[in-house]
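Marked as duplicate of an earlier ticket. Keeping the data here for the record.
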Amino acid sequence: MILWGNEHKERAEALAQVYRENSHAVANLSRSSSGIEPINSVDSTLTVWGHGNAEVFSEMLDVEFGKLIKAWKKLNPQLKVVELVTCDAQHHLKPLAGYAKRVARFIKEDHNCNDVKIKALPVGQHQDDRSILWASAGTKTFCYITAPSRETFDHANQRLLNLERNHGSNLGLVASEMAKERTLVTPTNFTTNGGDLKVLRASLVAVEVK
């Protein structure tokens, strides 16, 4: 099942088409005194795609999302993996923990969710890097960029926009070309990861908590 937050309908539906799964808007899920209500799904993976930062993801605070995962697992016991497709789900400014890690800790407290794994895009070169996920619903491709500074971040995003025009919005090709430009000094000390949406899930990493 693919859920989407505000402004991510087309990308999420493209991902759902690639994986042959259903999709649904987070905003259209029912609400009750217990929080956001789950819906029936035969999938063992729940993917949510939306805007995110260290505090909010797809218009949900960490506790709201954690409660939704617990409720989803109760209704759909086959759930094994929850994927956060967003920017900065793991990045944070110390001493605050990243959003994904807080959610992982929250559901770990529930013995019914002990077998549920939280996944997100990887941390960059540093825990407090900046990151952005670009995706094209038309070409069904993506490019994930991380950068250790604003100067590098801005440069990388501008390069993506320039190269995107040359590659017909194929962000996988853009990511490959940008990877060749990478150096260890500002403003080209960024990282890129990209390809077809069918490999997006393989780009996610497990969020480890103690």
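See parent ticket for discussion. The mean pLDDT is 95.
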